[in-house]
Design a protein that fits this description.
Layout lengths: L2 H20 L4 H8 L3 H8 L7 H11 L3 H4 L4
Helix pairs in contact: 2-3
Keywords: DNA-binding
Protein name: Putative transcriptional regulator
GO molecular function: DNA binding; DNA-binding transcription factor activity
């Protein structure tokens, strides 16, 4: 994995976690809203797992935010 890809994934993970916490949602509760396991959400939020565009759209719809709010500045 390239350095830019790693940076992108880590920034996305941090932003996602911050948005989830700002909404007062725990990992287990938010994972249920996404219909994924808590361990999958944990891997996404730690930057260990790639997120598909479809999953990113679902995450943003549940967090009521725009995809651009989770992405790193370029």
């Amino acid at each position: 994995m390239g350095n830019n890809q790693l940076k992108f994934r880590i920034v996305l993970a941090r932003q996602l976690r911050a948005e989830r916490k700002a909404m007062g949602l725990g990992q287990q509760e938010f994972a249920r809203k996404l219909a994924i396991s808590q361990s999958t959400l944990a891997r996404i939020e730690s930057g260990e797992q790639n997120v598909t565009i479809d999953m990113l759209e679902l995450i943003c719809s549940r967090l009521k935010c725009k995809i651009s709010e989770l992405l790193p500045d370029q």
